[in-house]
Inverse folding.
């Protein structure tokens, strides 16, 4: 029998690995570009600046990758619930013993070293969800099974919300896309998107116009379709429900959302209203990206991203550096890398021989997709500012390691996909 | 059962990336607004202010120079534990003023707690010494230097003009884009007329700055930076000693003195009385001083040499004589009876020739000269005949530079007035007019209006025997050694030069034996002059005197106009001769005349 290492190198999906290292490397040099100051010219390896520290995190990820590959592939499925439970426990611990960084109490300190358990909750939840869907007798059309699934992601979300880390909590909504792949009715996603659209519309347009618009649509729908009493009653009920939603959105925005969250939504709608206030992030980020032009200003030549105009530059707004220094072409390149990675993961997921591995693969793809879409979307003003990192790109040890673990567990499962059959 | 869902998910992934790329294409490639915003965001355009050109007198003596002025800037965020009592003491402020300043600070458009904002402007030099010693006690406050105008002599304030912040209306009209709010600009006099030479060119330094406005070095290693070039110095035609002396003589009087070097048109001295201290319009109290000066009932900002339009009085008889000689209606030997029944006269004379009539300033003589001019019998209709005559007369009179702007290198010059047939048509509202209606213009009364500059220019024209060079105040821009091209050209009158000899002879006699004798006469030099006494009922008449000297190769031509000072032979003749003396010899030898002028009691 060939030894373990040979199997790994033979069966490893080197395309994914190459994409992974390409993105990590580009992220690293862009983190350097952010902190680069021509007057000081500090080395990219200097651990006093973010790029130096990021390099340590990258080296750390290599050890994590090795560990994941060495551990037996059966470990992940077998201990999925245990890992999930442990992470939930850590999440529970954070509000009690955690330390506060940047307004969010999301860090667990071990000496001078801090980790964000929420970053690891993603892979843990993905494992648990995959195991549950992959378990014998699971049927997506059973309400009980669905409730348990939503309870699983709901528990993670709730505990992360308790840390006031709304952005990371929202990531878990993307599991609905995984459920959709596994047979759940698309109605839930359609309703969710529709609710979001109405929510945004309510903020954009005066409620009275919306009421009038709904009224007009209602009348048209009644006139155009069959004149059955049941249908008319249904449509009217739906219209009234919509109006109630609109009224409640107003209430939610003014009374439930916290001021900075309100501002983020207002900034999305009209960043020019207060470009130096709540619109600052989006305005500055758009200026930085927009000033890049087609080819960009050149590596280390950015002006906007150098001098702290864009806040959270190394982490959530790292894409600005790409946009400014490498222009549209650079953005196209990065987008291609990410979409390539996402499609490759879907490809990997689809070639898995058991449901656990496939669901897990889709979870990884969807989590990356959510981060990718929301992170870049907010920098160009298409999404509200939700503080979540760009996978492998943003500065930060916890997020890099969290994403690395997510991806490489999938690669480990992929290496051994044929053994699953052998085992059965 | 889940057919096609994989594809749906893949499509969603690709679609989102595609939407992003489209949006990015819009903001990065199609919309250049962001690039501009980025530049104004991170690149600080720092103006390198040029030094304004200096202004010197004809001998190179400095009149106007620049002196540093200090502003107090504040970076509000850095202000900590301000010892208010101490601050008030050091900066000589009251508590209310300080509170007001802080209130105004926050209302300023450019205010930001992290950027330097001007807190107090124009700390005077005296304050500054104290402030400089103690500024360290007040963190967050910084001193910023710039230059302001300073004056070596309190002279020629109206001719030189002043510099102050550009007004909003001027800023809106400015098409050059050179000026920005808060910039200084020449507001009057030479400072305004030669603004484009004096201001120099600004430099621009592009600095990178971070979000707090803190500089982070130069942009592209300064390859786009430009250095400021200082403004060009001006050498004026003024003789600072003569100018100061003129202002000394005019103290307490309203009026003007203009002295011109006839051969060049260079203005040796231009006094507008009363004047003001130009240093009042610089520094800390500019605004309040400006209000004070502009509200003064004596109108010190009114530049009389160019702007005060007076009737010329009897000095106009010289011009009249020239025109009549040129037109051939009289000869120098023509005698006319002094018929005082139509127009009053003065002095014991009865039947003079032209020189005698000028010497005695005979009114009936010149009334008849004008009659001969205007009614030459070219038409049988006396009205038409006058019209024809007046048209010819106009042409000649205008050629002396009367009735139009001479084009001096100062703003706000007035035209004066030479009445034309069209003018009388308007004045008479279409009713007919003839010589008997308008004969007052014969003796410089009536509708004629001239500004003192035109009178001096006229004296220079007579001195030059028939031409003038437009009077001007700047003889050299920068190191060129040349004035503007307009100030080299000779303007010839329509009068033959031989007739000016007659005028010069007559004007010599005015000084030696006529109305100007005694006070205008000088021992070592022949002065040619003409008095004027302009009716100003019910107030005392205005005193006028024009003169040039020496008679041969004249070096100076003068006009003096003293408001409400009675006969021209007294104040005006005295001042004119003192100016000539001062210019030719450096000092007067007639202290009694100087004393007489300074005492200023001309009416008794």
């Amino acid at each position: 029998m060939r030894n373990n290492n040979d199997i790994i190198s033979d069966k490893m999906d080197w395309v994914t690995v190459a994409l992974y290292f390409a993105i990590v490397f580009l992220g690293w040099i862009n983190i350097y570009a952010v902190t680069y100051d021509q007057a000081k010219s500090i080395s990219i390896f200097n651990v006093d600046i973010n790029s130096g520290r990021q390099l340590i995190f990258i080296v750390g990820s290599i050890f994590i990758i090795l560990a994941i590959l060495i551990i037996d592939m059966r470990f992940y499925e077998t201990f999925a619930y245990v890992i999930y439970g442990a992470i939930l426990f850590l999440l529970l611990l954070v509000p009690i013993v955690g330390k506060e960084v940047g307004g969010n109490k999301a860090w667990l300190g071990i000496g001078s070293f801090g980790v964000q358990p929420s970053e690891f909750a993603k892979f843990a939840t993905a494992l648990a969800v995959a195991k549950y869907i992959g378990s014998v007798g699971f049927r997506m059309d059973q309400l009980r099974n669905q409730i348990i699934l939503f309870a699983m992601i709901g528990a993670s979300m709730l505990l992360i919300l308790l840390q006031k880390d709304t952005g990371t909590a929202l990531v878990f909504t993307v599991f609905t896309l995984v459920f959709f792949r596994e047979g759940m009715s698309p109605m839930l996603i359609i309703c969710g998107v529709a609710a979001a659209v109405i929510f945004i519309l309510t903020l954009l347009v005066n409620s009275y116009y919306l009421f009038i618009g709904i009224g007009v649509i209602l009348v048209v729908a009644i006139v155009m379709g069959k004149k059955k009493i049941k249908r008319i009653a249904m449509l009217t009920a739906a219209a009234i429900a919509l109006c109630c939603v609109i009224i409640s959105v107003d209430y939610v925005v003014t009374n439930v959302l916290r001021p900075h969250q309100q501002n983020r939504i207002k900034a999305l709608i009209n960043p020019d209203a207060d470009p130096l206030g709540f619109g600052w992030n989006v305005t500055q980020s758009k200026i930085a990206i927009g000033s890049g032009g087609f080819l960009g200003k050149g590596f280390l030549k950015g002006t906007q991203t150098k001098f702290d105009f864009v806040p959270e530059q190394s982490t959530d707004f790292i894409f600005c550096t790409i946009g400014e220094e490498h222009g549209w072409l650079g953005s196209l390149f990065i987008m291609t890398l990410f979409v390539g990675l996402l499609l490759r993961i879907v490809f990997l997921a689809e070639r898995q021989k058991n449901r656990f591995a496939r669901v897990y693969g889709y979870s990884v793809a969807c989590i990356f997709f959510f981060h990718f879409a929301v992170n870049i979307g907010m920098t160009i003003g298409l999404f509200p500012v939700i503080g979540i990192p760009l996978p492998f790109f943003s500065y930060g040890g916890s997020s890099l390691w969290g994403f690395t673990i997510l991806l490489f567990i999938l690669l480990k499962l992929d290496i051994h996909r044929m053994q699953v059959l052998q085992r059965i | 059962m889940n057919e096609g869902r994989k594809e749906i998910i893949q499509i969603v992934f690709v679609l989102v990336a595609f939407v992003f790329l489209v949006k990015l294409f819009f903001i990065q490639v199609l919309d250049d607004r962001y690039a501009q915003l980025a530049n104004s965001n991170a690149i600080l355009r720092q103006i390198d202010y040029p030094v304004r050109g200096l202004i010197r007198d004809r001998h190179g003596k400095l009149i106007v120079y620049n002196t540093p002025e200090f502003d107090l800037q504040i970076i509000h965020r850095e202000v900590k534990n301000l010892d208010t009592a101490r601050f008030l003491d050091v900066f000589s402020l009251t508590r209310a003023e300080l509170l007001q300043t802080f209130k105004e600070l926050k209302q300023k458009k450019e205010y930001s707690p992290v950027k330097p904002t001007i807190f107090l402007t124009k700390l005077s030099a005296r304050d500054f010494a104290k402030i400089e010693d103690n500024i360290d006690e007040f963190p967050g406050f910084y001193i910023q230097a710039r230059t302001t105008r300073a004056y070596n002599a309190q002279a020629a304030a109206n001719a030189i003009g002043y510099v102050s912040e550009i007004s909003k209306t001027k800023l809106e009209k400015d098409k050059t884009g050179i000026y920005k709010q808060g910039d200084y600009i020449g507001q009057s006099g030479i400072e305004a007329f030669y603004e484009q030479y004096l201001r120099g060119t600004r430099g621009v330094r592009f600095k990178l700055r971070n979000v707090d406005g803190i500089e982070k070095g130069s942009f592209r290693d300064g390859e786009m930076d430009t250095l400021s070039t200082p403004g060009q110095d001006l050498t004026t035609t003024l003789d600072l000693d003569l100018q100061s002396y003129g202002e000394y003589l005019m103290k307490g009087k309203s009026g003007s003195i203009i002295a011109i070097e006839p051969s060049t048109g260079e203005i040796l001295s231009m006094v507008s009385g009363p004047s003001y201290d130009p240093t009042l319009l610089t520094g800390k109290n500019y605004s309040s001083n400006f209000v004070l000066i502009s509200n003064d009932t004596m109108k010190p900002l009114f530049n009389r040499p160019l702007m005060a339009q007076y009737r010329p009085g009897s000095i106009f008889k010289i011009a009249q004589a020239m025109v009549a000689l040129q037109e051939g209606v009289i000869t120098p030997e023509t005698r006319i009876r002094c018929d005082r029944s139509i127009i009053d006269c003065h002095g014991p004379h009865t039947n003079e020739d032209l020189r005698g009539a000028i010497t005695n300033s005979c009114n009936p003589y010149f009334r008849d000269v004008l009659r001969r001019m205007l009614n030459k019998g070219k038409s049988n209709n006396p009205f038409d005949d006058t019209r024809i005559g007046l048209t010819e007369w106009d042409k000649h009179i205008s050629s002396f530079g009367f009735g139009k702007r001479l084009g001096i290198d100062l703003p706000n010059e007035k035209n004066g007035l030479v009445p034309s047939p069209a003018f009388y048509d308007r004045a008479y509202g279409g009713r007919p007019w003839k010589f008997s209606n308008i004969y007052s213009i014969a003796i410089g009364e009536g509708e004629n209006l001239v500004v003192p500059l035109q009178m001096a220019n006229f004296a220079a024209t007579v001195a030059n025997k028939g031409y003038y060079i437009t009077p001007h105040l700047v003889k050299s821009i920068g190191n060129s050694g040349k004035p503007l091209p307009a100030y080299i050209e000779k303007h010839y009158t329509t009068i033959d030069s031989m007739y000016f000899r007659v005028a010069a002879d007559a004007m010599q006699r005015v000084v030696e034996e006529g109305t100007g004798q005694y006070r205008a006469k000088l021992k070592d030099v022949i002065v040619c002059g003409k008095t004027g006494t302009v009716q100003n009922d019910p107030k005392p008449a205005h005193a006028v005197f024009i003169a040039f000297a020496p008679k041969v190769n004249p070096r100076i031509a003068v006009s003096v106009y003293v408001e409400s000072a009675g006969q021209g032979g007294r104040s005006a003749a005295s001042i004119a001769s003192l100016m000539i003396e001062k210019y030719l010899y450096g000092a007067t030898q007639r202290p009694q005349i100087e004393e007489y002028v300074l005492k200023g009691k001309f009416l008794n």
Notes: Residues 232 and 478 of chain B are 5 Å apart (CA to CA). Chain B has two domains: 46-235, 240-288+303-599. Chain B has a mean pLDDT of 87. Residues 46-235 of chain B form a domain with the Penicillin-binding protein 2a (Domain 2) fold (CATH 3.90.1310.10).
